[in-house]
């Protein structure tokens, strides 16, 4: 339903973003946020680099806030701040600093009356995804879809709501099975390109929702050291891209050989690729299926929390909004 209501605004989002890009004429973009919103920024930086062809970097808001003079060195930079609440101190400060340097700023949040909306020159609001939970789930997917619609053609993603309905049950089933049938102590997520941000967000979901050890890597980086910790109590979930498919699947096979339980999600996957393969419809290319894929990780984190008797909506030590 969230996807449906965001897609209904597709044309407005695209034309608003097109006209601001035309007006601002940035030669560089920083996308910034904290926690899940920073990992969302990593995915969005990939989307912007691919579709917009303006060099874009994801930077944690705290870095911009603490080292402004080292980052804000180009008068052609536009700064896009992501924040579910719109009130996280570091993100507010990062946008304030960008403004003080005379740079154009954009806010993406779920709350119209939030601080970053008041500070930024332009704002995009995902009001359909306000959530009670401390942990970001629907808001992540919806802000991701809005960002996709800013830069890409909505025709490629029009089937998302329909396919999401079909896949939710499948994801839930597989996640439940993985957690029930195995003793997993470490959760590793691998992704290349836009899937790196998803791998990190998946890592954070397992940590926050189920208080478990988890890690996220660029897929092939895992070969350079991290693979030494693979054992029988590790679940390695790989987001398989349409670009580096063979390399990614070869690595996953190698990891399975070291004893890990493997799960993979991508086009055309079968039992020969992973213990738990999830074949995604060709109708959604690697960019259009991003908001769908993250739901698998949310279910894995959820069932792991249930197994451990943890309230995944209210994890220990965490607040919904972090203020300094
Ligand atoms: C970001 C965030 C969340 C995290 C935690 C605290 O908030 O760091 O990613 O799950 O609940 O807040 P926001 O800036 O997106 O509101």
TrEMBL record:
Domain SIS: 17-161, 174-315
PROSITE patterns: SIS (PS51464)
Keywords tagged on the record: Aminotransferase, Repeat, Transferase
Superkingdom of the organism of origin: Bacteria
The UniProt record lists the keyword RNA-binding: no
GO molecular function: carbohydrate derivative binding; transaminase activity
GO biological process, one term: carbohydrate derivative metabolic process
InterPro entries tied to this protein: GlmS/AgaS_SIS, GlmS/FrlB_SIS, SIS_dom, SIS_dom_sf
Protein name: Glucosamine--fructose-6-phosphate aminotransferase (Isomerizing)
């Amino acid at each position: 339903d969230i996807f449906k209501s965001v897609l209904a605004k597709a044309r407005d989002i695209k034309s608003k973003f097109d006209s601001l890009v035309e007006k601002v004429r940035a030669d560089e973009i920083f996308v910034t946020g904290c926690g899940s919103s920073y990992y969302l920024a990593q995915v969005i930086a990939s989307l912007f680099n691919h579709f917009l062809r303006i060099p874009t970097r994801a930077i944690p808001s705290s870095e911009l806030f603490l080292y402004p003079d080292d980052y804000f060195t180009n008068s052609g930079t536009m700064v896009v701040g992501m924040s579910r609440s719109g009130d996280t101190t570091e993100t507010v400060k990062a946008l304030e600093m960008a403004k003080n340097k005379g740079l154009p700023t954009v806010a993406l949040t779920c709350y119209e009356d939030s601080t970053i909306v008041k500070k930024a020159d332009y704002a995009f609001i995902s009001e359909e995804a306000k959530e009670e939970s401390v942990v970001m789930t629907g808001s992540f997917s919806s802000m991701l879809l809005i960002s996709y619609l800013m830069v890409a053609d909505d025709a490629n993603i029009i089937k998302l709501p329909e396919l999401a309905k079909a896949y939710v049950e499948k994801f839930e089933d597989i996640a439940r099975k993985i957690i029930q049938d195995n003793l997993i102590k470490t959760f590793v997520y691998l992704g290349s390109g836009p899937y790196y941000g998803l791998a990190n967000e998946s890592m954070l979901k397992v940590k926050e929702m189920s208080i478990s050890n988890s890690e996220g890597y660029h897929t092939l980086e895992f070969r350079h050291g991290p693979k030494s910790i693979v054992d029988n109590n590790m679940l390695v979930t790989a987001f398989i891209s349409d670009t580096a498919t063979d390399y990614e699947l070869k690595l996953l096979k190698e990891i399975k050989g070291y004893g890990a339980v493997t799960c993979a999600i991508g086009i055309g996957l079968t039992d020969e690729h992973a213990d738990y393969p999830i074949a995604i419809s060709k109708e959604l290319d690697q960019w259009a299926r991003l908001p769908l894929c993250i739901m698998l990780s949310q279910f894995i984190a959820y069932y792991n929390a249930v197994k451990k008797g943890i309230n995944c909506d209210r994890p220990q030590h965490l607040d919904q909004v972090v203020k300094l």
